[in-house]
Design a protein that fits this description.
By secondary structure, the chain is an alpha+beta fold. The model has no long low-confidence stretch (mean pLDDT 89). It has 2 helices and 8 strands, in the order βαββββαβββ. Strands 2-3-4-1-5-8-7-6 form an 8-stranded mixed β-sheet.
Length: 118
């Protein structure tokens, strides 16, 4: 069985130039900042379709810029089990005021998320 992906709901960047990037996203790209619970070390922006774009501090000092993409799933717990059954390491689910989510690293070495809406 495969994980059933329903869409993209989230993209983010983690960078040592967070303030400059957040200012660019707001002033040049025209996205509006949104208040979101449990966003630590970052700024969240809303897009017209309801998806979010986050600008955060780099994950580890000196690690440079990295990206993450959030895939929408109907059942986060089932999707996590599917990935783990396929041998993928998946973080324990977490949540904010809008979503439950779990991070995983794909074979390309990049960070992704499974996201379930509340």
């Amino acid at each position: 069985m495969n994980v059933e992906l329903l869409g993209l709901v989230f993209a983010g960047t983690a960078t040592d130039r967070r303030t400059a990037m957040a200012d660019f996203v707001e002033a040049t790209l025209g996205l509006r900042r949104v208040a979101e619970a449990n966003v630590v070390g970052g700024d969240m922006f809303g897009l017209p379709d309801g998806s979010r774009f986050a600008v955060a501090d780099e994950r580890e000092e000196g690690s440079g810029t990295s990206r993450t993409i959030g895939f929408l799933v109907a059942d986060l717990d089932a999707a996590v089990l599917e990935l783990r059954a396929a041998g993928v390491e998946v973080d324990e689910p977490a949540e904010n005021d809008r979503h439950r989510y779990a991070h995983f690293t794909a074979p390309d070495g990049e960070l992704y998320e499974l996201v379930q809406e509340h």
